[in-house]
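User: My instructor asked us to take a sequence, write out its structure as C-alpha cells, and then describe one feature of it. I'm not sure where to start. Here is the sequence I was given:
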Amino acid sequence: MPNPWTTDLVLGLAPDAASAKAGRGQAGPGKWTGLGAQDTVLWGEVQGSGQKPYQVRVDLGGPVFKCSCPSRKFPCKHALGLMLIYVEQPTKLPSMAPPDWVAEWLAERTKRAEQREKKAEAQATKPVDPAAQAKRTAQREHKIEAGLVELDRFLYDLLRQGLAAATSQLGSQFDQLAARLVDAQAPGLARLVRELGELAGVGPNWQSRFLSRVARLHLVTQGYRRLADLPSEVQADLRTLVGWNTIRDEVLASEPVGGVWCVVAQQTREEDRLTVQHNWLLRLEDGRAALLLNFSALGAAVDCPLIVGTTIEAELCYYPSAAPLRAIVKQSQSSQTLTQVPGLTTIDALLDDFSQGLALNPWSEAWPVALTGVTMQPLSTERGDPPRWGLVDSQDEVLPIADNFTAGWTLLAVSGGEPFDCVGLWNGESFQPFGALVANGYHACARDGVRAPIGAA
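Assistant: Let's start with the prediction itself. The C-alpha cells for your sequence are:
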C-alpha cells in the first residue's frame, strides 16, 4: 500500500517533545514481536514495565490508536514507535490477517460506528413534540434570566468595591458564581466567569485586561435581554456564549465552504471532565480561518484525523456567527505536506483584519492569522526578567509576542534571523505563535518549545 507518512509527520502527532523522544526510542523492531499490517491497520506487541507485553494497534486511516499500556498520552510512545517502524522499516511489518486481539478491536470500532449511525437516524426520525419543546425552552430561559440577574449584581458589586477586592476576599466568589450559572443552565457564562477570576492580579497591567472582560460580560447580559432585536448572526453568537448548543446536523445542512486548508496548530486541554482538542486551519486560497473542536471523555483518546503541518482538501460547514470561525468537516480527502501558508504582509493589515472581525463579533477572544516576511526581535526588558519578544514586519512595525511564550530564542535560531512566515493567535494585545514556515519546512511550536521541521523539503 502507498505510504504517505513521513518521520516528521509521525513525530508531529506526539503530544509533547518528551513523547516524541520516547517514541523514537521505541522504533527498534528488536523490541517488538508479532508485527504485522493489513491495509491501513498496524499492530505489534512490545515489552514494557509489566509482565505481559503491551498490545499496540494503529489505524492510519484516522489515525486512531489503541495500546494496553497505562499511559494517558495519546498517542503513547508505543503507538509512535510502531508508526515510525512502518515509515522507516516497512518490511518489518509483513502484510497478513490480523490476530484476534486486533480483529476484535476493529469489530468493536465498526459496531460503535454503526450504533452512532443508528442513534443519529433514530434521533432524526423521532417525532418532536412542539409543546413539550417550547415548555423546556421557556423553563431554561427563565433559569438563564435568573443567572443574568445574579451576574449583573456580581459585576456591579465588583466595580463598586474596587479591583483590589478581586484579588482578595472576592477570589473564591468567582467559582461560586460559576457553579450557580451552571445550575442556571448557562455553562458558557460560567466559563467566562471562571476565566475572569483567573485574570485577577495575574501579570503586569492585569487591570486593563480584567476590565475588558468585565465589559464584555456586561455586554453579553444586556445583549441577551434584547435578543429579539438583534440580527440572527449576533443572536447565534450570544446564544453560544451563554451555553446553548447548535445541532450538528443543522450545521452540516448549511452551505459548505470548500478549498485546501492548512492545518497549523492542534491544542488539547482538559475542561469540565472532558478532553477538548482545538484544531486551527487556514484556507490556502485566502487565509480564511477555521476552528475544529473535538471532544472525548477525560483520559480517552481524541479521534481526529488532522495532522499539523499538512494540508487537506475539504468542505467545511461553519456554525452560525456574525464572524464565523468554528466549523465541522463535511468531507475531506488525503492530506499533503504543508509548504506555504496564506499570510498578511504587514502588521497594519493584521490589526485592520482583526478590528473588522471584532466589529462583527465583539466577544471574539482571539483570531488565527499568518504573517509573512517577519523577523524575531527581542524587546527591551528589565534586567533579570525573562526576555520579551516581538515580530517585526517589512515596515519596521512591531507586534508583541505573549509573555508566556518561552521559545523565542529557539524560533530565532530556526529562522536564522532572516524573514519567515509565522502563524499564531492575535487577541488584541499580544501574539501567540503556533509555528513558523522556514525554507518550505513548517516548524510547529510545542508547549515546551519548537519542534523539528514537519515535512521540510
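For the description part of your assignment, you could build on this observation: Residues 248-337 form a domain with the OB fold (Dihydrolipoamide Acetyltransferase, E2P) fold (CATH 2.40.50). Try explaining in your own words what that tells you about the chain.
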